[in-house]
Amino acid sequence: MDEHLYLFFHILSHALLGAAISYILLPVGTWVQRISYIFIGGLSGIAPDLLGGRDSQPWTHSLLFAPIVVLWIALIAKLLLRKVSFWRLWGASTASAIGGHLFLDYMGHDIPLLYPFSDKLWIMEALTLGDPWVWFPLAAGLLLAICLKRKTKLPVIFAVIFVLLYCTYKIIVKSIIYQEVEARYPVGEVSYITVTPNTYFEFDFDPRTWLKFKYRTISSHHYQGGIAGYWGEKLGSIDYHSFYPKKREVVLSRGEYTVIYDNSSDSFYMDVTKEWVEDGYRYIEGTFEDKTYLYKEITPGKWDEVVEQN
Predict the structure, then answer these.
(1) Which terminus of the chain, N or C, has less C-beta within 10 A?
(2) Which residue range forms the structural domain that includes residue 250?
(3) Per-10-residue mean pLDDT for the chain, 310 residues long?
(4) Would the pTM of this model clear 0.70, i.e. be above it?
């Protein structure tokens, strides 16, 4: 997906979910008031990003500061909607910011939810922000609500329920795939598994594409992964598997495990072509720069190259 298009749908998702929450929580009103509710909720849904990014201004993406982040919106809303209680407007704006922004961010990437009491970054990473399964039903529900004369909240409620069920589905499937990867691809040493949506910076008009997941396992010596499919049905084969003979340090960075790369001359990786166990020892064969290498695990986590004798 084009970076600007991705950003547009990312922001749109926040705005629409925020608008839907506000629309549900505020009292039934005239057509003009309904438009106002959508505007207030949509603005609240993107407010944390308007006041600063989660990296430079972590307080804007904290649950504890959510009421402060939208206070200015509630004050403006009170000037426009004099008959609606300020506390109700403030509460709806706060709920829109938490549900429309912080919740979606947590589903997609890391955020400091408990700042300033904790610097821990919370992340589920089961959803790609900009997912049409989120913004499309919300847009349809809000549009229908504006056009209806009676029971205007009903389509919006159904849209929000659909989004929550969809997010639940993504969390459950991610958990299933995680357990399947853990069982199918043991690497013989401490490894870290990551299961994420398969649609980052990609755009496909087929909505089924957004349902798929990808996975990877990372350890001191191994890096492997591939496409998991909808329910993990594609886990029978590995798309890539790299082996690093020299041990690397695995660290946790921004909610994900990564490695500290060694740029020394004796550090390289090979594409694994074969693995097996013989006489109680694990062997790995692979290629690097058109040359084949064979390694044997002498002790847990320590590999030595096997050199054929002429």
Answers:
(1) C
(2) 187-305
(3) 75 96 92 92 96 89 96 94 93 97 94 92 89 95 90 94 97 94 79 85 71 90 89 80 88 76 77 90 92 91 78
(4) yes
> Does the residue 18 lie in any domain?
yes
pLDDT at 31 (0 to 100)? 86
8 A C-beta contact, residue 218 and residue 192: yes
Distances (CA, A) of 207 to 113, 131, 133, 282: 30, 9, 7, 42
The answer on 213 and 68 residing in a single domain is: no
Say what angle helices 3-25 and 154-184 make with each other, to 10 degrees. Answer: 130
Q: Based on the structure, what is the number of domains in the chain?
A: 2
Whether residue 26 is found in the same domain as residue 154: yes
What pLDDT does 237 receive? 67
Measuring CA to CA, how many Å separate 235 from each of 94, 196, 296?
42, 14, 26
* Contact predicate 58/114, CB 8 Å: no
**pLDDT reported for residue 308:** 67
Read off the amino acid at residue 126.
A
